[in-house]
Design brief:
- It contains seven helices and eleven strands.
- The chain has two domains: 147 residues, no CATH class; 96 residues, no CATH class.
- It has a five-stranded antiparallel sheet. Strands 1-2-3-4 form a four-stranded mixed sheet.
Length: 274
């Protein structure tokens, strides 16, 4: 099971890769299949409206795909455009579909995606994700897979209980799955194991848009000492990952529908069995 999870995570990262941006991070527009978005500003009664036209090479065969890409493009502008954003006048298309136009007002952007990163409203480039603090998980040294599992489960329990106010899911360390000396597709057991721990949040666990909770979750995980990666969040997607050094990590995904709109998967690295 864990090999399937790791493979899915690898493919997820590769699917979001784009060219490097000026700040050294991946270009979010390139990751979204947009080569050259047209971006301008206009002033309306003291408000700054960012006007964007973006054509993507990603297929948008249905209305749901078009509205989904519109949301992704709006989030990229919200997180990256340097300068005040009071509204976004956004037109998107795939080159083979009718253009989709929508105006996003600032309160709607905040409700959908959470607060803007520090800096852009003041004319500065957005900073990387939150730096880890000297929290309880900043420098653990698990000796066994069981120790690592206990740490990851503790992170998941704290996230549910302390951050979201939810009763923690009943999780306990498992025996884990075999790791292999020659990597993900290997066939030589290494004598170490790793395990995965999924947590599903039911519909109605929050009155907010679940995607808007991700920036706050990034800050919370950083306060615990986790190394947070906001790369996919910055690419306009509803995903966030964080790692615990030498132990494992957590990955959260928000879905736009279904009984469980938010899912967090905790996992451990390969370590000797407990």
């Amino acid at each position: 099971m864990i090999k399937r999870f790791v493979l899915a995570a690898v493919l997820l990262v590769l699917a979001g890769c784009g060219g490097p941006a000026a700040d050294g991070r991946d270009d979010p527009w390139s990751a979204a299949g947009v080569d050259a978005p047209a971006i301008a500003e206009r002033q309306e009664n003291g408000r700054t409206v960012v006007v964007v036209s973006a054509t993507t090479t990603l297929p948008l065969p249905a209305e749901k795909n078009r509205t989904g890409f519109d949301r992704r493009a709006a989030k990229i502008v919200w997180r990256h455009h340097v300068g005040r954003v009071d509204a976004i006048d956004l037109t998107t298309d795939s080159g083979s579909s009718e253009p989709y136009r929508r105006t996003w007002e600032r309160p709607g952007l905040e409700a959908a995606f959470g607060p803007r990163p520090a800096g852009p409203d003041l004319g500065r480039a957005p900073e990387p994700g939150p730096a880890p603090s000297a929290g309880p998980f900043a420098d653990p040294h698990p000796a066994t897979a069981g120790d690592a599992a206990g740490i990851i489960i503790d992170v998941l329990h704290r996230t549910s209980r302390d951050h979201f106010g939810m009763a923690p899911a009943p999780l306990a360390p498992e025996d884990g799955d075999e790791c292999y000396e020659d990597g993900l597709f290997g066939d030589r057991p290494s004598g170490t194991v790793q395990s995965g721990y999924p947590v599903e949040f039911p519909a109605g666990f929050t009155t907010a848009d679940p995607e808007s909770l991700l920036p706050g979750l990034a800050e919370y995980w950083a306060s615990l000492g986790l190394r947070v990666d906001t790369g996919r969040l910055d690419d306009g997607l509803a995903d966030l990952t964080a790692t615990v050094p030498g132990t494992g990590g957590v990955a959260v995904t928000v879905r736009d529908s279904g009984e469980h709109p938010m899912n967090i998967h905790g996992y451990t690295v390969c370590l000797p069995p407990r």
